[in-house]
Amino acid sequence: MDEFARIRHWTEHRQSAALLASQGVVTGIGDDAAVVALPPDEQSPAEWLLAVDTMVETVHFNDATMAEEDVGWKALAANVSDIAAMGGTPRHALVSVSAPKAWGPERVRRLYDGLYACAGHYGVAVVGGDTTSSPLHLVVAVTVTGTVAAGKAIRRAGARPGDAVFVTGAAGMAAAGLHFLLAAGSAAAGGGDSPRPVPPAAAEAAGTAALVQAHRRPAPSVRAAALLAARGTVTSLNDVSDGLASEAWEIAEASGVKLALRESRLPRSGSLTAYAHRAGVDPLDWILYGGEDYALLGTIAAEDADAAKAELEAAGLPMYLIGEAEQGPAGVELVRDYGERGPGSRRGRFSSPRREPLAKRGYNHFGG
């Protein structure tokens, strides 16, 4: 099967004419470049948003942690989340795949199955891309376009003292899911360096199915972003891709404010807490420093925070108010109500909340 036959095998008849038309696609896959017009449902004037993300085998995924369909879903979802984090609507995707011999046509087709499933879920038109061979590992790079009303893109740099800090989902789930997959896969392999794939039944039996799902099939907060953007009171926004602490630092530094995150308000999944206890891990470590949850972290005018939370909850979407933006040097602090009361003692309530500087760390490709 040559290159062009493979492209047809992977992409032909995947999306309806109605979906493509809804995103303003004039010419899609099959020419030297795609042609798109401003989607007919977009209010004018509008601005384009552009995002790109790359996934590399052995760096972002391997056979033990993700199926081919999961890789495709996640490669697109990461970009969809970036568009949502600007308060925009995702529109089009360009997909570049570099595949080694181990990834034959059918394996790559399964990757496209997952990618098109994600595209269909979020209404994204796949309009082109590129395919090449790779000497060793699979590389998937996806570029997504989106639109936002002119001058209304929500940046990281708008947080103001007095704003409320919010997050649109429980953090740490994906990191806990990855931990389970690696630990269970290593145990199945007899403790070797090459973990085995973990069947879904094993995750169900261990009570970690939701954690595994969060790692393999993250759900960007697109609907929440649209509702929040429409209110006009969100002052900064970021998506939790590298960890809650890391993203909070990005907002704090871009805005020149201090963010105080309250430990008691951080959402905790019951399955995450239970698995962390069994694994001997402090769940707060995953919540603060895990990544790839793709919930939205941001700040909103304090006087509208409760109303915004009520609107999202009425739509079946979570929103947690987890802290405040304050005047002061750019930074992030954790406000703790509970802690250890001495060697060997039980965790109990402090007489008054304690503030601790929150380390500026999370996932970083180059360790900086």
From TrEMBL:
Record's miscellaneous remark: Reaction mechanism of ThiL seems to utilize a direct, inline transfer of the gamma-phosphate of ATP to TMP rather than a phosphorylated enzyme intermediate.
Functional note: Catalyzes the ATP-dependent phosphorylation of thiamine-monophosphate (TMP) to form thiamine-pyrophosphate (TPP), the active form of vitamin B1.
Organism for this UniProt entry: Paenibacillus glycinis
Entry binding sites for Mg(2+) 3: 32, 82, 239
NCBIfam families, A to Z: thiL
Record-listed Mg(2+) 2 binding positions: 53, 82
Positions of ATP binding: 112, 129-130, 156, 241
Domain annotation PurM-like C-terminal: ranges: 160-330
Entry-linked PANTHER family: THIAMINE-MONOPHOSPHATE KINASE (PTHR30270:SF0)
Homology family: Belongs to the thiamine-monophosphate kinase family.
Alphabetized GO MF terms: thiamine-phosphate kinase activity
Residue numbers binding Mg(2+) 4: 32, 82
Name of the protein in question: Thiamine-monophosphate kinase
